[in-house]
């Protein structure tokens, strides 16, 4: 049975443009266009027009398509509420019972979105042969799930997501899965995923590399690629066996439902006096003061890496007397003296811990330090304490021991900054400036310091507040301390790295 999906009208003569649904299921579709070109509107039109004829699954990273549930009966699956294994089982039941679904990934971070989408697509792909019914699988923002290059996510998540998208586009046809993928930029989408589509709808784009690739996919000459800059919102150039054998400008028709985001509209600002506005944004309410942000549960720290020097010493035979002397712990005073030498260099704050640790080991051998030296995790902890600027008397206090114990539960990149803030809070000193925080995390960039503080606040490690004069206050909910107001733009005072 041939089913024609009404996509809109031809931009030239206004005749209806239909997409052959059966041909689409066999040949797949790629949609490309910059943000605001009308991709989501196009996908919504396709989903609404084909909903009565074929089962659908929408992988929705922004939660825009959940409104299909009210009008067309799609089941919204909140991915963040399920584990990866549970999503695979849900996907298998989706295929078994032929239910149209929207996989809502809204609220999850990018890496978790990739893992959850990979699990769900894997469940659709691995369904029993008896349940291989035709299914339209729409993936919005496909460049997130099939990136052309490695990004900030882990290799494990990227490989799982890319593998699931490749299976969908390359091997899904025999299992009844028809991939419809939409992307803002072709250059960011993996080529082996994009190459499997035989139908294309190309919208407005401005970058030369994306225009050239779109022209190549449509079989157009490079000089014709400039036309993609002139396309209006909701206008696309279509090509493929399911819609047109020649490039055809199409104006996408209207839709019955709407997304939750939509296009921003200008509206007047509220008329609030400046004094009232300042109080509204800078004064915490009673609920904030009564319930400090709790620390999130922490994963157990990974086991420390093996000390290469210890392995070499174990492999090298030594006399019994020398072995006993080497296995003894090194003199803490000697280790402290070597640490002073390492951190006396003004550039030591901007070198990686691994480089500083190698310098430390070499200096230990040069100074003939006997016994076991610090391992790398112990070295990092000791350096964090030194950079925090705590004096010898305070370092032995119970309060500082609490701070060190709390820092030990945090990732290594946060420990030095946390101890710097804890020292200032414990001594009721002004909040460290961005430059001081940057030095504590091994950088010269105040921007990186601000980003790390914001990330620590998101994790619930600290609470940032702004005083009326624009000064910064940092509270440590886990310790019940807070710093005095301090100028975040103050310079980093040069001086000795502090007593050990």
Automatic annotation (TrEMBL):
InterPro entries recorded: ATPase_Atu1862_pred, HerA-like, HerA_central, P-loop_NTPase
Q: Which residues form a coiled coil?
A: none
- Pfam families, per this entry? DUF87
Q: Where is the composition biased (Pro residues)?
A: 488-500
Q: Where do the TM regions start and end? A: none
Renumbered residue ranges of the record's region Disordered: 480-500
Pinpoint the Helicase HerA central domain residues: 7-73
Q: Which domain of life is it from?
A: Bacteria
Kindly provide the name given to this protein in its UniProt entry: Helicase HerA central domain-containing protein
Q: Organism source for this protein?
A: Rhodospirillum centenum (strain ATCC 51521 / SW)
